[in-house]
Design a protein that fits this description.
By secondary structure, the chain is an alpha+beta fold. It contains 3 helices and 3 strands. The longest helix has 20 residues. The relative contact order is 0.19.
Amino acid sequence: MPAQPGRLGETRRPVTVVAPAERGATRIADRVVAKIAGQAAREALEALPPDAVAPHATVVVSAHPPLRSGGGTPIATARVRVSLELDYPSDIGGQCNAVRRHVAERVGALAGMEVPEVAVHVERLHLAPAPGAAHGRMQ
């Protein structure tokens, strides 16, 4: 009876070790990184104004990054631009900083990329209603 895979007496090929640089690379599309960044921006903001457009991002991923990890493998870098709408008055600077930190952290964790730059563009401010203010038309 011939030897079956996984049985004693089976002849196996020796395991060869391939250097990391020769194994290939995973390329993550710019639009995927942009979706990750947009979702991270939504997560960083506590609440959006009622009629606001959800944050969206544009991303440029460098093809030949200069950074290298400990093993000599290139690390992709992503430069992110996030556009969002905020309530006013609010801590605009604080919200922008929270978005920058969270986007860099999430893109780094989920896509395995270095994020040296996150530019936040506030497209529009929405006047937040005063507490206790009446909604609708007044006569």
